[in-house]
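Colleagues,

Please find the record for the two-part complex below.
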Amino acid sequence: MANEVLTTNIKHLLGSLVAQGVHEFVVSPGSRTTPFALLLAEMQHVRDDVRVTVDVDERSAAFFALGMAKTMHQPVALLATSGTATANYLPAMMEAHVSHVPLIALTTDRPAELQAIGAPQTVNQTNLYGDNIKDFGAVEMQDAHADVTRYIDYRVQQMVVTAVTAPAGPVQINLPLRKPLMPDLGATWPAVVAQHIITGQTRADWQTVQGIAALLRDKRAMVLSGPDEMTWDATQFERLADHFKLPILADVLSGVRPSDHAINGIDALLEADVLADDLVPEVVIRFGGTPVSARVVAWLRAKDVQVIQVGQNAAGHDHSRQAEITVAVDEMGLIADLLAEPGSDSVAFLARWQTVKTTLTKTIASTDMTEVALPLAMTSLPTDSQLFVANSMPIRDMDNYFMPTRTIRVMANRGANGIDGTVSTAFGMAMTGKPTTFLTGDLTLFHDMNGLMMAHQAQLDMTIVVVNNQGGGIFSFLPQAAAKAFFEPMFGTPLPFEIADVAKLYHADYELVADQARLRELLAQPAQGLRLLEVKSNREANVAEHDALLAKLREAFHG
Amino acid sequence: MANEVLTTNIKHLLGSLVAQGVHEFVVSPGSRTTPFALLLAEMQHVRDDVRVTVDVDERSAAFFALGMAKTMHQPVALLATSGTATANYLPAMMEAHVSHVPLIALTTDRPAELQAIGAPQTVNQTNLYGDNIKDFGAVEMQDAHADVTRYIDYRVQQMVVTAVTAPAGPVQINLPLRKPLMPDLGATWPAVVAQHIITGQTRADWQTVQGIAALLRDKRAMVLSGPDEMTWDATQFERLADHFKLPILADVLSGVRPSDHAINGIDALLEADVLADDLVPEVVIRFGGTPVSARVVAWLRAKDVQVIQVGQNAAGHDHSRQAEITVAVDEMGLIADLLAEPGSDSVAFLARWQTVKTTLTKTIASTDMTEVALPLAMTSLPTDSQLFVANSMPIRDMDNYFMPTRTIRVMANRGANGIDGTVSTAFGMAMTGKPTTFLTGDLTLFHDMNGLMMAHQAQLDMTIVVVNNQGGGIFSFLPQAAAKAFFEPMFGTPLPFEIADVAKLYHADYELVADQARLRELLAQPAQGLRLLEVKSNREANVAEHDALLAKLREAFHG
């Protein structure tokens, strides 16, 4: 046993992670990670509830883990070597912190005696992610003291519990290691006793439940379900809406679409200014994160609607500052409580909103415009398939125009809203094994092109629909589009390469898709391996098409 | 004047940066950056000492700026939009902090009234880079109070001075902005008065100078010149060595090669164990950062050599803990002082080392082995050309075997030693307009493949020599190579694509180079645009070839 202490302590650390529900590990190779990587490989070999995936680019790896954690509803561990490797996790840690995803960053480090004296690849990794994590801990791996092993078991399990407890979020475990780093392979694995930490659930008191039920029953009330990717059972929203006869302003990331009560397109309807006064609610019960639609929160404030905000993750997260009542309790618990109260039979308000939805659906169905038509085509995806959507224009169009008739899981990195790491997040989502599609613009694809590597590395199937508008499409909607002299070099940023060549580099199937019918046909069939479907667009034409659609909406509602 | 306060304050900020010597700006487009980006474009248009370069991937952008700052010896400013975009700067900030490079990160932010209440793309950007910067400041851009503009002028100039003062390092200026963001274009630019801040220079007292001079004159003394990319005039080392007849253990990143006094290959000589006892110095005067050679510092300790460590950046940076005397003064100042003292005529020790060098040079000249031969081929680069070297194997081989006969500027990211961001750093180096070559392995190329975009974006010429050993070559030299079952998936990480396809994607010239003669021929001619030269290698064969070379060295010295 050449390296017994290190080997035993690492096994306790890994065993503690598994004991608290960490079954997925994403490793970026390096020298300092050696003992962890080898023992992870051995652990994967000896037990079947552990999976290790290698992603060489740490920025990509962290977003890949983010996609897994969000989709699988479980904590995912990351392993990086010392130095700038660990810094590459920050963008995804930031997103995980804002969207409450339990990532466990294991950052190997140089030992204490090499800190701050010019040793190579040695940086200060203590509290590296600052305010973007819930907890930081350093665990000693090479101390033979009897307390150390027990501390590892206790502290590591505690940190995983911290990460998954609402509001969930990432943690960092820093691991200083001195050479020699080779672990003893083939030795016995110690049993790690799982701590049973019951964190409980925050529920509303009965007066609050009764008060909210009365408002939902007696007022013109709506649900606003914002993004939530980790904690909800979306069918409960349908039951709540049915019980009180409520329309649901269902964010595309709420998981609540499809539903008879779900309304889409609120941002377009508000932009077109086609909503009659009798569609304004008196009360809105709001769940989840900040909606994709910027206009809907502004509208609630402008109309002085009474907003009740519900949820533990999103408590206080109302940048319209409109919510009068914040109910910081478990959402599913509150819905269960509300369902036990008397409901409502009055369907008039709901019916008016359903008519709006019908008119909207009819109007957009008649369009064959490129970017707007993409959300319609996405409804052809198979039942139970998954769809990851890039930020900027794709998520906005999807929020307005995507209303599937079957269950299609839609996700985005809608916390910090970065354009970084999206390819990797989509591939992380694909680790469930379900058919997965990624809808993106060309610029966002470029930002995380390294993520495409995971198709080969983890043997994943994926369809990527690339809307190629030659650069940053969203800027064409902003005031700077008027500054013509400086616009193209500073904002347009056209990419100098062909999507077909990207496909060739990564051995992907490729097709330039010219019409919506063909796109629907392709999307109905899940990809085998990696498939890139390019849809060409034009930034200026796209602005004109969006404007034309708004005009059609005005005509449909008022004409 | 729709947005006069914002426009005026931004002009003061930009003017203050220029007043303190910031002439290069690297911009990653985004919505929140709009007023800065447009006014930067206007500033570039109206004055000829400002250059703005766009790099859409913020991780790449920061390393690109790092490469510029290191090569041009001046501070470089970065501009990012709010959210995870800013987090992507961390890897390069970390490297800049360790290698003392003055990067000025301008991070635009959401306004204070949107913090922590769930507004989209809003994260805590205060002190985002933690201990990896020298100073953090937040500057208000939309306050019309008379003190604010003066504060901007003062504070921003002060922060640039902080960044460039030894030990130099990065700073972050956070810029909260509320809408509307469109600046007034075409208005007058205010004059910004440059503060003249004389930071002075730390010099040694005369007793110290005389004491060191006596040691160099009377003992078997050597110079160890470690990496330094920012502050040195390398010709002074030659003068110092000539004055006291000193051999220089010249790190490949010291800038001291070529020189009659410079010795290369110290790591290989120590590994082969061919150095006779009479080559061991009594005294070493050490300059610069931690040497590429890990063995040289261990050797000095094992032989109990008296080490005098000199420098402001590297004071206390001796992870061998061998230095008895640390002289934390300006290096060039100390050399000037030493040159004023009496020198030495005794050339015996220097001559013995020069014989070692001759034997080494002859031995390696007879090799035609792939990876080892690359440093020899690199000596064919044109005079005054630049060479950026990736970490891991390439920098180690270069440190051992590269001894040019003309001035070739060699750089690497040898602070935190990451494999991230190297392509971008090389392109930043190419911004000088001098012929630039980048020597890298395939895995490092992959990690920052997005950096290749800058060939088109900034119209840069670049030759990239890719040693394709299908993954992480260095791991084959480490103990884990013995763990065959787990090695390939966990460490080998072969890339699933062809370098020729990378070249096609980025419209680069491509050639698979089979022999050293052809490589020399190609390297002698600077690239027009982007050129990828692939040299195929094999990880296991490379280990064997390194071993064979060590055997040849033993034979040459002892045989």
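Chain A touches chain B through 96 residues (CB under 8 Å).

Comments are welcome before we finalize the supplementary table.
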